[in-house]
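Quick one:
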Amino acid sequence: MWKILSWLQKYMIWSIPLSMLAGLLFGMMANPSFLRWTILPLTFLMVYPMMVTMDVNELLKPGGGKLQRVTLGINFLLMPAIGYATGLLFFAHQPMVRLALLLTSLLPTSGMTISWTGFAKGNVPAAVKMTVVSLIAGSLLAPLYLKILLGTVVEIPLQQVFLQIALIVFLPLLLGALTRRWLVASFGEQ
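Output:
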């Protein structure tokens, strides 16, 4: 298991596209709906280790405003513009495909952002902040974008969004902080 995770981390530039391709091919050859129940627990298992290694106090420190603004600009200006333009250019007469492209480009990912940031030895506290802010902003902006760009009204279930944030970000954060506290008390900071 550790060898696989080490390989994924070492060759991330290859492992991500290969995983996406494998998932796409599997979805074309078989009905993947039976795997739906695994999404939440597997995402939790990918996020939790990153939270154990993170000092929760880092989340409370000020700063990172420029990074947050750039991320929000990319997530909610650049990516929706690319998704919308792609839809108009290639699928002008297929409104459902254009809707799917716009939604896909507008709604950011959640737990995987944190996991891949940790695997890449990046700034996990900043990724946690970005994930929470982007999920909330995406939920609030998606109906507005869809109405303005496609003339479609889509209701985003905010209660589900906040539940997803709680399960994918805050629960691993809480359990990771408790685990970290126990590990430091038992074995020291090393």
